[in-house]
Design brief:
Layout: H1 4-11, H2 22-25, H3 29-61, H4 64-99
Helix pairs in contact: 3-4
């Protein structure tokens, strides 16, 4: 059995090499990313409300074409809200997962 250090020395790999997340922390990117995610979340929720209202009116009138397009809009807006709401948590989880290797 070989240890990871022996394997790295034998193959020429350098241990302890990885991305420097400290360079991103102090650069002011977190407020910008947070603002963009907030704008995306507000837009997704607004589109969810608009598409739901259009879906209700179109189904009351009996327009099945508009109803199906509004239903797709509601589903995509909900997906966008979930993705933009959980994006920062998902990125932090991936960064923590990458630090374990």
């Amino acid at each position: 059995m070989t240890t990871p250090t022996a394997f790295a020395a034998r193959t020429g790999l350098v241990t302890g090499v990885g991305p420097d997340f400290g360079a991103v922390t102090g650069s002011g990117l977190y407020p910008i990313i947070g603002a963009l995610l907030t704008i995306a979340l507000i837009t997704a929720v607004a589109m969810l409300v608009v598409c739901a209202a259009i879906w209700a009116v179109a189904s009351a009138v009996g327009s099945w074409q508009v109803t199906s397009k509004a239903r797709i809009g509601v589903l995509l807006a909900a997906l966008g809200a979930v993705l933009s709401g959980g994006a920062l948590t998902w990125i932090n989880w991936l960064i923590d997962l990458g630090n374990t290797f």
